[in-house]
Amino acid sequence: LMKYLMYVGWPDIIVLTDTRTTIKGFHGIPTSYEVFEAYSSSSKRGVAILVKDIFKPKLVLANNSGNLCYVQIRRGCSVIDILGTYGPNEDNPNFYACELLPLIGSKSTIIIGDLNL
């Protein structure tokens, strides 16, 4: 991944799923990024959202199960919600009904990740 990003250039926002651990302090991430993540202590799942500082990112939610990371960014006067998700491997409709869907409002929202549907 690092070689690819160095070759094509670093995007404004990166969402990683199934990270299985924390990536904060990972060698090679430019200092112009803030790193937000949700991970569990069981070395399973994990979501990381990397956002360039220019968007003034703010962590709203990172659940303890490593399935969901919610960050807000600003672009001009607009606020954009980014929901990075790594859906449960097992059939668990409650995750979507109780955890993911209530976070989606009428404002600009991007849902990205592995939904495991």
From TrEMBL:
Superkingdom of origin organism: Eukaryota
Gene3D superfamilies: Endonuclease/exonuclease/phosphatase
InterPro entries named in the record: Endo/exonu/phosph_ase_sf
Protein name: Endonuclease/exonuclease/phosphatase domain-containing protein
Organism (species): Caligus rogercresseyi
